[in-house]
Amino acid sequence: MKQIACLLFFILLISGFNGCSKTENNTSTPTPPSPPKVVKSDSVPDKNTVAEIKSDSLKDSTSVSVISTNESSIYLGKKVIVKGIVAQIFSKDSVTYLNIDKKFPVNKFFAVIFSDKLSLFPDIKKCTGKQVEIEGVITKYKGKSEIILNDPKMIRLSAGQ
Asked: Are the C-beta atoms of 70 and 108 separated by less than 8 Å?
């Protein structure tokens, strides 16, 4: 019996028996990777490095095209500068229309000022017959291209006017 007890003790010793204590789970929680190092953009980054981009070195990749009223329909949804002569200014209901290059109804493009913004454009009537540049996003209304003017900076007299 003593031999069996010794043999049993020896087997348990070799197998790593921990007695009555709870066995630990050997699955270790992986440590999260350390955050990437930030370096100046003139350094050569390795796979664990994020290159820092200086904001003053970024160029505006969305240049604005200067177009004529005849081209306006192909720039729907795009920010552009439309160049043309104010052929007619017409107010109806709560809207002021600036028909560019041709009078209504043969004009292909117009600018719109809604009544709640009209006070921002006190001298707009003086633009009749002058060449202007209108900057904004082109939308379509009743088959014609338009730019809605919300700010006086969106319209300016062309050079020499």
From this structure: yes
Cα separation, 146 vs 141, whole angstroms: 7
Tens digit of pLDDT for each residue in 55-95?
233 334 468 999 999 999 999 999 999 999 999 999 998 99
- Gap between the Cα atoms of 53 and 129, Å rounded: 47
Say how far apart CA 133 and CA 86 lie, in whole Å: 10
Reported as a single tens digit per residue, the pLDDT across 102-161 is: 999 999 999 999 999 999 999 999 999 999 999 999 999 999 999 999 999 999 999 877
Q: 90: which residues sit within 8 A by CB, 6+ positions away? A: 96, 97, 99, 104
Q: How many CB atoms lie within 10 A of CB 52?
A: 13
Question: Cα(111)–Cα(125) distance, rounded to whole angstroms?
Answer: 13
The count of other CB atoms within 10 Å of the CB of residue 33 is 7
CA distance 114 to 94: 6
* Look-up of token digits 């009223």: 69
Task: Please say whether the dihedral angle defined by the alpha carbons of residues 35, 41, 45 and 47, taken in this order, is positive or negative.
Answer: positive
The predicted model scores a pTM of 0.61
